[in-house]
Every structure is written in C-alpha cells, then in structure tokens.
Amino acid sequence: MSQQRFLFNTAGVYVGFIQDGHVFTPDCDWLGFIQKGNEFYSPKGVFIGFILDDDRVVRRRDQPPKFNVFPPFKPFKPFKPFKPMRRMAKPKLPYPYEDVYA
C-alpha cells in the first residue's frame, strides 16, 4: 500500500493529499502531479507551485511562469483517506511567497 502525505494551508486547514506522486483533493479529485521532488503541476502540466517540508503549497509572486511539462496519464481514483486533524496555523510566508490554498 502506498503512503499518503497530507497537505494543509497556512491556517492549518486540510486541502489535499499526495499519493504515488499525484496530488488529490480531500474528495479524491486529481489536482495534478509532482516532479523533481517538490514541483507541483496541474493535470495539463502547468506549474502550480512548490510543496514545502511543512506540507504547504506555495508559489513566488515575482517568478515568471515555469515552462509546462508533459503530464502523465490520469491515475486511478484512490480510496478516500481518513480526514486528518486540523493543524496549528503556520507562520506567515515571507514576501514574495504566497500560499496557493490560502
């Protein structure tokens, strides 16, 4: 069985999870995929942001858009995981970073 990693916004609200290199909403809708360890792309291969070690998805406001990448095939819909507990709020991100799911 593959391991899941939960994603949260800065306020500590559960916004999705990662499983087998793909990102899903809490209801298991496919949001995109991960490349190069922490780069998050949409299902069409458009860059969304970076996944931080503290489980947030962020992007730089001042960074020009990254080149699109060729997306993988759509994964099978995973089983819905148990909803994790809300986390404590994280520190505000410094400029030029912003929370994608704020």
Features:
8-stranded antiparallel β-sheet; mainly beta; 102 residues; flat
The gist of it:
The chain is an all-beta fold and 102 residues long. The chain contains no helices and eight strands. The protein has one domain (4-99).
Structural commentary:
This protein is mainly beta. The protein has one domain (4-99). It contains no helices and eight strands. It has an eight-stranded antiparallel β-sheet, with no helix packed on it.
Strand order of the largest sheet: 1-2-3-4-5-6-7-8
Continuous helix count: 0
Structural domain count: 1
User: Low-confidence parts, pLDDT < 50 over ≥5 residues?
Assistant: none
DSSP strand tally: 8
Shape type: flat
- Note the main sheet: 8 strands, antiparallel
Mean pLDDT value: 93
Taking the alpha carbons of the first and last residues, their distance comes to: 31 Å
Quote the beta fraction: 25-35%
Task: Write down the Rg.
Answer: 13 Å
Structural class category: mainly beta
Helix content: under 10%
Written as H for each helix and E for each strand, in order along the chain, the element string is EEEEEEEE
